[in-house]
Amino acid sequence: MKKLLTLLLALALTLSMCSAALAADVGIVLPTRDEPRWLQDQARFESVIADTDYTVEVLFSQGSSATELTNVETLIAQGMKVLIICAQDAAAAGIAVENARAEGVTVISYDRLITDTEAVDYYVTFDSVAVGEAMGQYLIDNAEGTGNSLYLYAGAQTDNNAFLFFEGAWNVLQPKIADGTFVIRNSSEAIAVQDKPELTREEQAAIIGQITTDWDFNVAKSKAESHLTAATADEKGLCYILAPNDGTARSIADVFAADADVSGYYVTGQDAEVASVQYVIDGLQSMTVFKDTRTLAQDAMDMAIAVLEGSDVVTDATYNNGAIDVPSKQSPVVVVTQDNVKEALIDSGYYEASQFTGLE
């Protein structure tokens, strides 16, 4: 009996230790570990939390809403008090965050706004409309005359940010489409509404459905190849390309660079991924919108810590997610080109110069 009691006590102690090891004050769910952007975010989160007394657990959904739901349930079981989640599917994530809210967890939507649910307490984001406007303005600033060929691409229809990016780009590009500076070459849906300064959600969805890359390199490559195959030589020449992020920008740029009828191109991007920074240095990608994940992760973690400590949460905007106006915190963005790549990304300490070649 004494041996049995000792064994039971040891087992209880082991289970207690395991439970403590699994505890997470802040649970973080990110879309995938297969894109450099999200691994950078993970590193920033872990760096910020290391300076506090709180614990964090980062899980990846790997492109699956089902895995995302399982990840949230796992973190609930670990006793998280705050959930920071970048949704794989903005609408499908509603179930996961509603489950978290039901357990008393504060929900912070990270980078991508979760839609059509009241179970979102806060939203931490870069100004996604401003990102799209910066992309569109870059193309405008480098265009001369009229009849310039414009190729439009977008992110995934399941990501609300894809709509915000496109909205911002359309805000500045539409007047230049209407006056003939640009001619849309690859979207009949966009051509059908090219005289409209403001688009409905349904009109945006129709366009994005036609030009979506699904944030996938291969989809972007295939779509660009298809568009150039369908285009005449007169519809190529010097091309202006709205690419939604760095990964798709590199794929699309490679396709346009390989076409003999394309004399040159300007292509946008965002996220300042290492590979795209090198493309910018080499002149293969024209620009990238730098969104300093150190700032975004810091803002999100500051918000989480404020919740944990019962302090006031700092916000400076609201975003409507289709159900409520979500209190939000916006982080600034910077346009990076060959002219300022060193200042913006190296001198700021975001990257090491040794990660690149050809820097001056």
TrEMBL record:
<dbReference type="Pfam" id="PF13407">
    <property type="entry name" value="Peripla_BP_4"/>
</dbReference>
<dbReference type="InterPro" id="IPR025997">
    <property type="entry name" value="SBP_2_dom"/>
</dbReference>
<dbReference type="GO" id="GO:0030246">
    <property type="term" value="F:carbohydrate binding"/>
</dbReference>
<feature type="domain" description="Periplasmic binding protein">
    <location>
        <begin position="26"/>
        <end position="310"/>
    </location>
</feature>
<keyword id="KW-0732">Signal</keyword>
<dbReference type="InterPro" id="IPR050555">
    <property type="entry name" value="Bact_Solute-Bind_Prot2"/>
</dbReference>
<feature type="signal peptide">
    <location>
        <begin position="1"/>
        <end position="23"/>
    </location>
</feature>
<dbReference type="InterPro" id="IPR028082">
    <property type="entry name" value="Peripla_BP_I"/>
</dbReference>
<protein>
    <submittedName>
        <fullName>Sugar-binding protein</fullName>
    </submittedName>
</protein>
<dbReference type="GO" id="GO:0030288">
    <property type="term" value="C:outer membrane-bounded periplasmic space"/>
</dbReference>
